[in-house]
Amino acid sequence: MLSKLLAITFSSSLLLSGFTFDMASAKTQNLPRVHKNQTSIGQTEVPYLSDSASIDRVIRAMTLEEKAKFVVGVGMPGITRAPFEITGAVGGTYGIPRLGIPELRMADGPAGLRIRPTRPGQTQIYYATAFPIATSLASTWDTAVAKVVGEAQGNEVKEYGIDMFLAPALNIHRNPLSGRNFEYYSEDPLISGKIAASVVNGIQSNGVGATIKHFAANNQETNRMIIDTIVSQRALREIYLKGFEMAVKESHPWAVMSSYNKINGTYTSESADLLTTVLRKDWGYKGFVMTDWFAGKDPVEQMKAGNDLIMPGSPKNSNLIKLAVEGGRLDEKILDRNIKNILRIVIQTPEFKKYQNSDQPDLKAHAMVARKAAAEGMILLKNKERALPINKNKKIALFGNTQIETIKGGTGSGDVNAAYTVSIAEGLKEAGYQINQELLSKYKTYIDSMRRQEPYKIKPHPWGEDFGKLVPVIPEKPLQENEITSASKETDLGIIVIGRNSGEAEDRKVVKGDYLLSDAEQDMISRVTTEYHNQGKKVAVILNIGGPIEVASWRNQVDSILLAWQPGQEAGNAVADVVSGKVNPSGKLTTTFPVKYSDVPSAANFPGTPAANPAKVIYQEDIYVGYRYFTTFGVKPAYEFGYGLSYTDFDIRDVKVNKGKKFKGKLTISTMVENTGSFPGREVVQVYVSAPDGKLEKPAVELRAFAKTKVLKPNQRQLLHFNLKAKDLASFDEEKSAWVLEKGIYTVKVGASSENIKGSATFTVDHDMIVQKVSDVLKSKVGFKRLTKQ
Ligand code: BGC
């Protein structure tokens, strides 16, 4: 690394000038706070960054110019400045060698580390592992799996010489069309917060930093850099900030990335209410805040707000900051505060500790982690007469282009340059299935010939090689009648693969080929199922998608639907694990699949107004996001939040709450889970609570806890316990600016989905309780009508 080179050059120049400062021995010898053997200018000793005690002295020794440069990143390769030694790193901090401050390097996630695989003049290839997309990871409902994925990702970050990973991302699935939903976990803040905290803990166990992003209410791509999100304080606290609050408190991420959008009129990166009052004062955050790339307008306001670092940064930003201090518009103390926040993290980084990265993470081991997580995140949406699993000695015919061009993950900064993607066709073949060769080779020929034609040629990504490739969607291969007939005669099962992709900078659309099936896909489903059913055989659909599509109009035609998501580079192998029954599917939806798009509560307010070029978006649905809306307003979804089938059956029973059934500061819930089927498997047990309407109205149910069983053998049982505290059950009262627990009878509903409740119990809260007072900030300046039950 260049910065490593600088560090070496610097220490040799120290040696030449007679200094022998050695960080490691300084630590072990417990030297006095001001090191005697530091470099000096004239008579003045110049401090050197060594530990947290040295930070204030180092800041005092910085010139104003150095300060103004340090709070601004060093640019972005290809766009501003900074051709980094780690090609594909997307940003870095400014180093001040004379004070012992190294440069840090940052690179993207969240599905894996995004760096460029090739470097000029080198033969080594720098691949990273493409893990399943965030929505898939959350669909595991397994915090242990999320932590292991985080550990593997953090190891690649460290071994490739990066200090800060720009992940995980945990914005809310407010609307299924948001182009980056695949990078986010859920429509629910509890599952988002728990999975994010586990991933952060995993990443940071390597001694590298995680960055939770995009803080906050960044739930669409349309006009993302200017859109003004108009939202109530209650919806902010309960839905859009809650996951971040949990991640901050449960995993202490080194950095938070503020978002592009405004909240109630102010850019998040310029909002002291958000970045200082909520994040630091209310939540006790101790890391640093960086902007999203090129976000916001005014660097001085960003500094004041507590946005410690401007990314990717330009000399213009530093100049404006320096001029503002000189002109009295910005107090230098603010700069000192921000610098301190960053330096407290700098001293923990591999770069500061002079870690010699190997450039050789164990990609084979990480591929296995990716495969396991991908299979655990797959969701069986339908399985009529147990069409799946299917034995490996059976014959399968595969339909749909995506069997070959399987999609590992979404596009944009969340893409990963992986060594390979195992296609669904390859994975099933590898597992031992006899794939109908004739049909497979016709698909291959078709795809090859289409890819040679201009509109479908795979091109370098317009944002640069680091961002992977631009892969235009090719129309479904037209199916000849005899192709379907002979495949249905020769094979035991037909599998249709449907694929969708989306990514940064653009939202999805309710059009054929995106949210809706294309005519060719509809046609493929009806003709293939008709032929197979005529033969008394079954058809399964595999959905290789990053977010919901319309399913209600076609699902009755097919026997099984496996939602594989975009499962990362091991896609085909993970699909084969589930299709074969090697892994019994145990994923559950973390996002609702509506019957029709217009059923979505935010449908009328997405992506904002004016429709031609939205400047603002009003979150009129308020707290009724996702299942909170569907359950409260009695709208039946196609597949509800929490839904997912298994090859076995489970009984969830004996739901109990603690003795006396009174809430006294904490609540213990227990339930027994039993595998009543004939296949080993795992069940996700979901604890919803229905709170009584008081001064505040409440959604019909809210997820308050969850757990996943171990693999239970047939007839095996597991007793699960859940502990809830007042804050876990509380609602946000805007008048009091507080989390409150209102008195009344609460019902605990334990089940296998938000609509499939298996047992319940009640408890009472005797009097209204103020659980936690927080700051009265982020109020909407304009009135708007909120969705209400009344
Ligand atoms: C994205 C961030 C990303 C950054 C750096 C931005 O466009 O919104 O998620 O970390 O670019 O690539």
From TrEMBL:
Residues 1-26 form the signal peptide. GO terms for molecular function: beta-glucosidase activity. It holds the Pfam family Glyco_hydro_3_C. Residues 683-754 form the Fibronectin type III-like domain. GO terms for biological process: carbohydrate metabolic process. Keywords: Carbohydrate metabolism, Glycosidase, Hydrolase, Signal. InterPro entries: Cellulose_deg_GH3 (IPR050288), Fn3-like (IPR026891), GH (IPR017853), Glyco_hydro_3_AS (IPR019800), Glyco_hydro_3_C (IPR002772), Glyco_hydro_3_C_sf (IPR036881), Glyco_hydro_3_N (IPR001764), Glyco_hydro_3_N_sf (IPR036962). PANTHER family: BETA-GLUCOSIDASE (PTHR42715:SF10). This is Beta-glucosidase. It comes from Neobacillus bataviensis. The lineage of its organism: Bacteria, Bacillati, Bacillota, Bacilli, Bacillales.
